[in-house]
Write a structure and sequence with these properties.
- About 95% of the residues lie in helices and about 0% in strands.
- The chain is built from one helix and no strands.
- The mean pLDDT is about 90.
Length: about 35
């Protein structure tokens, strides 16, 4: 039970890290486009 709980926390952390970096990448890619318009 404890092992599954730990793996769930690690999975959520990894998912949030990937989602956060993807969101930052999209923001950095879209920012010049928004500023030029």
């Amino acid at each position: 039970m404890k092992n599954g709980y730990l793996s769930t926390i690690v999975f959520i952390l990894a998912l949030s890290l990937i989602f956060g970096s993807a969101l930052a990448g999209v923001y950095a890619w879209l920012k010049p486009t928004i500023e030029t318009n």
